[in-house]
Write a structure and sequence with these properties.
Elements (H helix, E strand, L loop, with lengths): L1 H33 L1 H6 L4 H18 L1 H18 L2 H7 L4 H24 L1 H17 L8 E7 L4 E9 L4 E3 L2 E6 L2 E14 L4 E13 L2 E11 L6 H4 L11 H13 L5 H12 L3 H15 L5 H28 L4 H5 L1 H18 L1
Antiparallel strand pairs: 1-2, 2-3, 2-4, 3-5, 4-5, 5-6, 6-7
Helix pairs in contact: 1-3, 1-4, 1-6, 3-7, 4-6, 4-11, 4-12, 6-11, 9-10, 10-12, 11-12, 11-14, 12-14
Length: 357
């Protein structure tokens, strides 16, 4: 049985690698053509643009893992049937479940790889790609003005400003708060703050410094005060960080920061649940691919390719439906994120039991 499992694993991983490269390339090219106008007009040098495009590759690769897993399952199983090996091993006493169990183990291995990539390679590459896009390739933030805005600085630092002008490196009416385990421990309340690019820090002007300790407040007035805020204006621009830029731990920390600023946590809770649910799509969609492959046992490989596309897009559509339900509050985040997995998993169990009966 061990030899047979290794043999089926080879049948699985060869089309898996091919499908992963093909699907990732197709979606990557589609995204690149969609951004082509911005890339051509960008003032960034060609090296920055190429770096951005390369850093986008892990994102699309992780996204097409389920499609590649399904394609590998279909090709491995239909090829095994079409070659006549299925009849040969049945004559040796193999049951139907003995054919597809090694494929499920392969899909489980892909699930682990996808989860590890999602937590390590993807956040680092995607965050860097986003920074290149927002700061060097398509820096729209330079021309924005933000009124009555809340900003996140270094860990534990929160700023409120009546007006924030990132291009000028200026804040009007800023209030910088530093928090600790017991709440706010330090505050700078000033008329304005200016970014010093030479020293890479913010200087506050005409304000008061407050220190909170043991229910007491100590105040000191100043005409100018160099702060510990060292985040450049571009990085202070108020925007929701993409969950793909963060691991689960980082996403949990960001969720706490969002709560401190009074932002809704529903989308972040949905993102956490989706990060847990998405890698398991590889296992579930492979399980669904087994009865589909047995149904297509004598069909050409192009049918397997089309079936993989159709089922994958249906799965992704159901995932988006679940996300919409979760973000609207119509369903709990965990249940909404697992909608597609539960539906496709239930269908897979039903169909497999019919073939295994």
């Amino acid at each position: 049985m061990k030899i047979f499992s290794v043999y089926m694993a080879k049948r699985f991983f060869k089309p898996f690698v091919f499908g992963l490269a093909l699907f990732a390339l197709l979606i990557f090219l589609g995204d690149m053509f969609d951004k082509m106008n911005s890339l051509i007009k960008s003032p960034a040098p060609i090296g920055i643009i190429l770096a951005y495009l390369w850093l986008e590759v892990p994102y699309w690769t992780i996204r097409v893992f389920p499609m590649a897993t399904l394609l590998a399952t279909l090709i491995a199983l239909t090829g095994f049937v079409q070659s006549g090996e299925w009849i040969a091993v049945q004559a040796c006493g193999f049951r139907t479940r003995d054919f597809w169990k090694p494929l499920l183990w392969c899909a489980l291995a892909v699930t682990v790889i996808a989860f590890a990539g999602q937590e390590t390679v993807l956040p680092a590459c995607f965050a860097r790609a986003q920074r290149l896009w927002q700061e060097r390739i398509h820096p729209e933030w330079e021309y924005n003005t933000f009124a009555n805005v809340s900003l996140i600085g270094n860990p534990g630092e929160f700023i409120q400003a009546r007006m924030f002008l990132p291009r000028q490196g200026r804040m009007d009416g800023p209030v910088l708060d530093k928090t600790g385990p017991t709440g706010i421990t330090y505050e700078l309340d000033a008329r304005k703050a200016l970014w010093d690019p030479a020293r890479r820090l913010w200087t506050f002007y005409d304000g008061v410094e407050r220190t909170f300790q043991d229910d007491k407040v100590a105040e000191r007035y100043f005409s100018s005060e160099d702060s510990d805020l060292t985040v450049p204006p571009a990085n202070l621009v108020p925007r929701m960080r993409n969950p793909d830029e963060m691991s689960l731990r980082e996403l949990a920390h960001y969720s706490r920061s969002a709560r401190h600023l009074g932002l809704s946590r529903r989308e972040l809770e949905m993102a956490v649940a989706s990060k847990i649910a998405y890698p398991f799509a590889n296992f579930i969609i492979a399980a669904l691919g087994i009865p589909v492959a047995l149904r297509l046992r004598r069909s050409p490989r192009i049918f397997s390719f089309c079936a993989a596309l159709a089922i994958s897009f249906l799965y992704l559509w159901m995932m988006e439906l679940g996300n919409a339900l979760g973000q609207s509050g119509a369903a709990p985040p965990f249940l909404a994120a697992w909608t597609a997995n539960l539906a496709f998993g239930g269908l897979a169990v039903f169909l497999i039991r019919r073939y295994d009966a």
